[in-house]
Amino acid sequence: MAELVSSNKVFGGDLRKYKFKSAALGGLSANFNLFLPSQASTTTKVPLLTYLAGLTCTEDNGAQKGGFFEAAAAKGLAILFPDTSPRGAGVPGEDDDWDFGTGAGFYLNATAPSYAPYYNMQTHVTLELPQIIEAAGLPIDFTRQSIFGHSMGGHGALTLYLASTTKQYRSASAFAPICNPMKCQWGQKAFTGYLQGGIEEAKTLYDATELIKRRNEPVNILIDYGTSDNFYKQGQLLPENFVAAAEGKNVSMRAQEGYDHSYYFISTFAPEHIHFHAKFLCD
To answer: What domain of life does the native source organism fall in (predicted)?
Structure first.
């Protein structure tokens, strides 16, 4: 059962922080933030947009710095902000590096024996959190969901959208996503660490560039990245690989001149991403 930790008024709605014991994350305590617009009530359920944050982040980064609430309030959209990994699993080596382990769950379900009991962020985001929110009686319409994210969270948003066999999400968008993780250092490190089958196991499940190749149905995807993003320049993001694989599949890829990887970049284009999702969520 979710316990309310705090609530703050913002743009006429409420930003609420909850905590609960997560079965998907091995019984560890988990936090999430949920923005409920003023349109949400005991008689009116609102659509849900899930935001996935990047490496080293928590459930607070997007809520505090993303700049999403004014547009979401105007459109009547709720926003869910999950954490980025389990906290306190105690797996040997999980805190050795900033880009693996705590704060770096990569939105997958681990199969390597030491990580499998705890690192199940895919299940946590797609199944567990909706169940917890519904059980709490919060006014969310789970038949209308979309997903977006930043960096590692952009990878998560794209892969959870593209891999869903139930079409859980109507649209996906991303800020500076890790588009082809099999071919970058961040992804290779995550996949060889979390997955028993390593990169080969990830190929059909957790790489957006591979997933879009096999997607025959129409997609609704928007991606922004900055041309001055150091991680883009280092070859961690590889948006060109994704857009080449997605040719003719309704993907909007925008290179934003001079922008970097920060939340200054995200907050600049946040309203456009909210409006993009509103087209699919606000019937």
So the answer is: Eukaryota
